[in-house]
């Protein structure tokens, strides 16, 4: 069986790395409302990472479809190796420009966990997630080990097809590209 999973990157957050769990800013709220037209008709199974910016983005879909999103930690944000803001800022650029092989086994396990969560989603699911998590699906489809395969924009919609029999992944619709890696 081939199933389709729709991946939505959260709207623009009110803060960057200085806040571990920022809300959406005014632009992000507008993006979330506009994005509901891009995910298609519902209701369909809706999932979100536990972070505030993804839950707030999912609220626009919940309202349009009259459903509640299920929170799934396994599609959450990649964790920095430190809580120090200065060290996290120094880490993120090289990490995003690198590969999972160079990032190490902990990040390879994280990537594999995200892919396993997505494999387990029901056909037609919509998953509101994060830049790096969405890139794991793109990398799987493209056979690419880079952390950033495509710089998905805030509230962009990427559609992935997964063949449950062969574990082949294909990008049916690639989300809009951002002009920066992190925003």
Radius of gyration: 15 Å
The biggest beta sheet is recorded as: 6 strands, mixed
User: Order of strands across the widest beta sheet?
Assistant: 3-2-4-1-5-6
- Strand tally: 6
Cα separation of the termini:
36 Å
Number of helical segments? 6
Topology:
Layout: E1 2-9, H1 26-35, E2 46-48, H2 52-65, E3 70-71, H3 85-97, H4 100-103, H5 105-119, E4 126-129, H6 131-142, E5 157-163, E6 168-173
Parallel strand pairs: 1-4, 2-3, 2-4
Antiparallel strand pairs: 1-5, 5-6
Helix pairs in contact: 1-2, 5-6
Structural features, described:
This protein has 183 residues and is an alpha/beta fold. It contains 6 helices and 6 strands; from the N terminus they run E-H-E-H-E-H-H-H-E-H-E-E. It has helices at 26-35, 52-65, 85-97, 100-103, 105-119, 131-142; strands at residues 2-9, 46-48, 70-71, 126-129, 157-163, 168-173. A 6-stranded mixed β-sheet has the order 3-2-4-1-5-6. Helix 1 packs parallel to helix 2 and helix 5 (105-119) packs across helix 6. The model has no long low-confidence stretch (mean pLDDT 93).
Brief rundown of the structure:
This protein is an alpha/beta fold and 183 residues long.
């Amino acid at each position: 069986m081939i199933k389709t999973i729709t991946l939505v990157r959260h709207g623009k957050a009110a803060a960057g790395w200085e806040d571990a769990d920022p809300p959406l800013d005014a632009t992000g709220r507008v993006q979330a409302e506009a994005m509901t037209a891009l995910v298609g008709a519902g209701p369909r199974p809706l999932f979100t990472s536990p972070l505030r910016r993804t839950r707030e983005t999912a609220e626009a879909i919940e309202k349009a479809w009259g459903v509640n999103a299920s929170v799934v930690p396994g599609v959450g944000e990649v964790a920095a190796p430190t809580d120090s803001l200065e060290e996290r800022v120094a880490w993120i650029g090289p990490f995003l420009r690198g590969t999972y092989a160079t990032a190490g086994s902990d990040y390879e396990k994280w990537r594999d966990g995200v892919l396993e969560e997505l494999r387990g989603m029901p056909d037609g699911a919509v998953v509101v997630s994060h830049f790096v998590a969405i890139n794991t699906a793109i990398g799987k489809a493209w056979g690419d080990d880079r952390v950033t395969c495509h710089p998905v924009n805030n509230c962009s919609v990427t559609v992935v097809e997964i063949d449950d029999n062969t574990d082949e992944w294909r990008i049916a619709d690639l989300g809009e590209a951002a002009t920066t890696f992190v925003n």
